[in-house]
Design brief:
heterodimer, A: alpha/beta, Rossmann fold, 18 helices, 41% helix, globular, disordered N terminus, B: mainly alpha, 36% helix, disordered C terminus
Chain lengths: 471, 73
Amino acid sequence: MGALEASSADPASFRDPDSSVLHAGAEVLRRLSPAAAEDWKKLAETTFFSDRVSRGEIVATSELTDRQAVADEASWPVVLKHDRIPFISYPYEWSFSQLQDAGGLHIDLLLAALGEGMTMKDGYAYNMQFRGSAPVFIDIGSFEHYSGGPWPGYRQFCQTFLFPLLLQAHKNFSFRPLLRGQVNGIEPAQIRGLMSGTDLTRSGVLKHVALHSAMDSRNAGKGDGSQATADQLKKSGFSDQVAVAAAKNVGTLVRKLRWKPGDSHWTTYQQTSTYTDAERDQKTAFVREALSQRHSGLLLDLGCNDGTFSLVGQEFADYVVALDNDEQTIDLMYRRLRADGNTKILPLVMDLTDPSPAIGWRSQERPSFLDRAKPDAVLALALVHHLAIGANIPLPEVVSWLHSLGGRLVVEFVGPDDPMSRRLLSNKPAGLFPDYRPEVFEKLLAERFEIERQVTLDTGTRTLYSAVPRG
Amino acid sequence: MSFSLHVLTPYYLDAGTGSMLVQMAVAGVAGVAVFAKVFWAKLTGPFRRKPVDDSLVTEPADAQQPQRQSADD
């Protein structure tokens, strides 16, 4: 059986009839229609394409020469093979700076394409992925010959990049619930409703939000449609120079937006936590020892805070996905990793008590986080008390969930007498968690895992376990 | 400014009429000339002669011909 016959179509790759993604085992393929194949040949000859691929800004792509596997050569004359992205993440899991950098790169690539007679068909945030802290463009099928007129991807770019960034920068309103709730992003009328009269003076709001929304509602259901409008604009002189000027305006705006939320409790956690240096060293040594037992493909760091243990873990794994509920903490961590050029640790914003669901067409277009995450090893340090006490998740449920993730586990149990547990317990009625005790946790853990090693830290209130899942 | 006679590559997504038009403003100074032309075309549109659409021409009833559906039939 050939590669394409054994392949399955990517459930998110259906919008563009000229280009669709297939998965064949571990390989990511893209088949192109005759029209898209022409665009690919042109793209492959441009200097920006090879330049950006070598910089890691566009996913490495080669033409599949073994065509005996491809049945329908007339419909799909070209099949491409893409480098695999280590872990697929979505815009509603990114922090402000991640969405900003991804959007900035998208516009950079559009400008580079316009400079060599090409453009992009769309401007979707899902065209971007991350390799660690480095954004990468994956939708090769988006590049096409530029034949004049405005950018068709502008609306999508606004809905999935610019509007979310404007909301967070100007209103300190997180874009993540909105992007998670609507796969096509925020409509012009929706963001207009959230902007006050004084917001019109803020960067980008007058043109991209107010004027855009007004033009949108004024033209809804009238005229000959957007295609005819684009033709008319082209005939009226909307050339490549005008398209470049518009793209530069959007790119400059995206890069200059700033989110200033103030300090969160978690961004200063390392300074305010109750750890001693000796405890931190003891904990680091335990984690290092536990993870060094076996090299992992994917390591999940649950409740990663500033990523101290993700940095330890990256030595023993191909790739680390680090999750925390606090966006500011993740944003700070991302910016540090980006400054270091780290391509092994992907920080994501995630509430583990409410992880990303599946969204989009048939609820299959963008799979849930737990469907994507198949770790070989899991770090759950200083997490269990937040789930069990902070979120009222029964202790057996917490352990069952950790087991369901399927990887080797390094877990920390913070006892009820620890100052951090006491702080959480003080927000709940006394006696609400009678089973939140070390011996109960250990018994539950032993039922589902084989405990290889355990250490109680010097203060006596925290115990670390290294465990392998049973059956 | 470059012009070509053939029409644009069709878009697979609805790019939005308002989203197309607002790009004239987004382009700033570079978009002013385009806006002037579009505005002029709208202003003078009602007074310009429209090209005859062949598809709307019907044969005389006594010719017993089926009505033409499009110029390419």
